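Please fill in the sequence for the structure shown.

STRUCTURE ENCODING:
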C-alpha cells in the first residue's frame, strides 16, 4: 500500500539492501546469507521487511530457484547506487584512518578455497588496505612469522600440536576421500595421494595407516590442492582431506570401507603481537568468516 503524501516516507535500511543485492547476485538465500554473515532465516526476515515497506514482491521464489520480479529489477539498480554512495561517504570520514599493507600467509588449501571470498568482501569494506598474500606450507609460514616477514598467517596443525600463540579458528575431521564409484581404496597396496612433508593431513593419514598395519604406496604427491583433487577424481589414489573439502564427485571412505580413522586437525591463525590497525581489521574479518562457517558449514 502506498504511503499517504502527508506521511513521511519510510527509510530503507542499507543493511537490508545489501542483503537484497547479495541474493540478486547469487540467486540463493543461503549463499547470500553466508556472504552477509547472517543465517538464512534472518535473511528471509530482512526481505520480508523490505517487501512490507515497499508493498511489492521483489523476488519470485520456487522450490529450486530465486529470481527478481520486475519491481525487484528496478530496485536492484537503486540499491547498488545507494550502497555505492554509502561506501563513498564512509570512506571520506572513516576508511582513511585505516590505510596500509597487510602481509597475509595461508596454506594452499585455504588460499585456494577460502581467501578469494574473504579478500573480495574485505576489499569492499576496506578499499584503502592492500593485502599481500603468501601461499606456502604451514611450517614455512610459521618461520616467516617468526622472522617478521608476515603480519598474519593461517596454519594447519594436528589436533594435538597447535602452534604457540595461535588462535584456533576451526577444528574439523580429516577423512579419506575417494572418487564416487571408484575402487582405489580396494587396491593392494593402497595407493595414496599426499602433500609434501610438514603437512598435518599427511602426518595424520600416515599415522592412521601405520596403526592399522595397512600396506600402502605413495602413488601421487603434490603441494597443491588441485593436484590432490586430480588424483582423487581420476581414481588414481585416495587422499586425506578435511571433511568440508569433499566435492560432489567424492565420497568419504570410512572404516567399513577398510580405511582407518585419521582424527581431526586445527586451522589456526597467528597475528603479530604488535599488530597495526590494518592488520587487526584483516584478522577480525577472518574471524567473522569462520564464525559463519561454524554456524552454517559454508564460506
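FILLED IN BY: designer on duty
SEQUENCE:
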Amino acid at each position: 500500500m502506498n504511503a499517504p503524501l502527508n506521511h513521511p516516507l519510510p527509510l530503507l535500511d542499507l543493511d537490508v539492501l545489501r542483503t537484497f543485492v547479495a541474493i540478486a547476485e547469487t540467486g540463493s538465500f543461503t549463499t547470500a546469507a553466508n556472504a552477509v554473515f547472517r543465517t538464512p532465516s534472518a535473511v528471509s526476515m530482512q526481505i520480508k521487511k523490505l517487501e512490507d515497506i515497499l508493498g511489492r514482491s521483489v523476488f519470485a521464489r520456487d522450490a529450486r530457484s530465486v529470481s527478481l520480479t520486475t519491481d525487484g529489477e528496478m530496485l536492484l539498480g537503486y540499491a547498488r547506487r545507494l550502497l555505492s554512495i554509502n561506501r563513498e561517504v564512509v570512506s571520506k570520514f572513516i576508511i582513511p584512518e585505516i590505510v596500509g599493507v597487510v602481509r597475509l600467509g595461508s596454506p594452499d588449501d585455504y588460499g585456494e578455497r577460502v581467501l578469494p571470498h574473504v579478500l573480495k568482501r574485505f576489499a569492499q569494506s576496506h578499499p584503502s588496505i592492500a593485502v599481500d598474500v603468501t601461499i606456502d606450507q604451514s611450517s614455512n609460514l610459521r618461520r616467516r612469522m617468526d622472522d617478521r616477514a608476515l603480519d598474519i598467517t593461517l596454519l594447519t596443525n594436528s589436533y594435538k600440536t597447535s602452534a604457540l600463540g595461535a588462535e584456533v579458528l576451526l577444528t574439523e575431521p580429516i577423512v579419506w576421500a575417494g572418487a564416487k564409484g571408484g575402487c582405489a581404496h580396494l587396491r593392494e597396496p593402497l595407493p595414496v595421494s599426499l602433500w609434501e612433508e610438514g603437512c598435518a593431513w599427511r602426518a595424520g593419514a600416515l599415522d592412521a595407516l601405520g596403526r592399522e598395519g595397512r600396506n600402502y604406496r605413495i602413488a601421487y604427491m603434490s603441494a597443491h590442492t588441485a593436484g590432490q583433487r586430480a588424483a582423487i577424481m581420476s581414481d588414481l589414489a585416495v587422499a586425506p582431506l578435511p571433511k568440508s573439502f569433499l566435492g560432489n564427485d567424492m565420497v568419504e571412505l570410512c572404516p567399513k570401507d577398510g580405511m582407518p580413522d585419521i582424527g581431526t586437525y586445527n586451522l589456526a591463525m597467528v597475528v603479530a603481537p604488535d599488530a597495526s590497525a590494518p592488520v587487526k581489521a584483516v584478522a577480525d574479518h577472518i574471524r567473522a568468516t569462520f564464525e559463519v562457517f561454524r554456524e552454517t558449514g559454508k564460506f
